Amino acid sequence: MRAYRAALLRFDDEGRPVYDADGLLVVGPDPSAAAGAGGGVRVVRAAGSWSALKDRFPGVAVEHLPGRLIAPGFVDLHIHFPQTDVIGSPAEGLLPWLEHYTFPHEARFADADYAGEVADFFLAELQRQGVTTALTFGTSHPASVDALMSRAQARGLRLIAGKVLQDRHSPDGVRDDTEQSLADTEALIQRWHGQGRLGYAITPRFAPTCSDAQMRGAGELAARYPEVWIQSHVAENHDEVRWVAELYPDARSYLAVYERFGLLRERAVYAHCIHLDDTDRALMRATGAAAAVSPTSNLFLGSGFYDYAEAHRHGLRHGLASDVGGGTSFSPFHTMLAAYYVGREGHSKAGVSLAPSQLWWQHTAGAAQALGLEGVVGNLQPGCEADFVVLDPQATPLLARRSSQAANLEELLFSLIVLGDDRAVQAVHVAGAAQGLVRPA
Ligand SMILES: [Zn+2]
């Protein structure tokens, strides 16, 4: 076992922050794991105030980290690892951006060596930014998933990924074959889902690029493998919504197309969810599907503003996502700040001020809940897998100045959200193992 003394942030079951200014985090082997099981994944054995816990673990080495904040590793609910090099590509909105940048780039992932090189960079960058779990798209090439999964496994990460399904309205090089794509998906599920900490996600790109036969096949796989995730996009921008309405003139809405094919259920995560109506939100709530809110992407592509007030009214499950490469940053701090902007926007919907701890929850425990992984990752309550970050609120002169004047937890968290970036991430621990100090203390 090993223990860390620092300020400590976690969340209760209602999503409220639990904070110890002088806290102790104790990690060790999972006592509930059968002998030989667990794969060396260490879990949180205790978390709380230093004074209450210090005498309960005699003989356990304590690493004292004065001035630092220990917080759950961030969970990115929607990202495209093959778009690492597409980040920052300007375009006239979503559909031209896909056509001019994304599809030509993704075609290169047919080459396993190329996919592997990008996967290495991608995983290192996530870690550098404090992200310890991601739900990520591959490309339509099965080799892209093999490249990513093998490397995530070597790092001990809890990562979920899937091969993109897109058998129509897609150019040569990324368009797949209906029957082969479904056979490839099932083979990848059997190869990777549940291997160590890895999970598989059935991944129809979005309704316009998937034939009815492919969508039906995806839904059948989703029914046959209920523990497997589903990831896709819905209601991102107006042109896309119009296109879906033309393709499915009898569908009640864009979201209803996914329902028709059995693709709304627990563990289904839909990016964006901007242009939904009340019936759609009720449908998401009833089926247990979750929204991956992707604010830097939505602001960058000018897609629209996620309606937090309506989402809260309907009890929608949601969490935060970078959506790189439509998104502009791997940094959870940048994503949380952009989510604040999106919440505040009050011209297209009601404007709300999201509390800093609520923004933080959406990128940790809330995102984990959206994945059906509450109590597993995204939190530091006893029993959670010990994925955590050590943050330095003195990382830059302005951040140090502002954070030192924080009068309470919300002000401290907001100073990090507004002024923080990768420089504030001092260390990342995955399954209880330090991944090396990102920068010297
Ligand atoms: Zn996306």
Protein model, in words:
By secondary structure, this protein is α/β, with parallel strands linked by helices. Helices cover 36% and strands 23% of the residues. It has 16 helices and 16 strands. The strands form 2 sheets. Strands 5, 6, 7, 8, 9, 10, 11, 12 and 13 form a 9-stranded parallel β-sheet that branches. A 7-stranded mixed β-sheet has the order 3-2-1-4-14-15-16. A hairpin with a 2-residue loop joins strand 15 and strand 16. The radius of gyration is 21 Å and the shape is globular. The two termini are 22 Å apart. The mean pLDDT is 95. Zinc ion binds next to strand 5. The site of zinc ion has 6 residues, from strand 5.
Keywords summarizing the entry:
binds zinc ion, 16 helices, alpha/beta, 441 residues, seven-stranded mixed sheet, globular
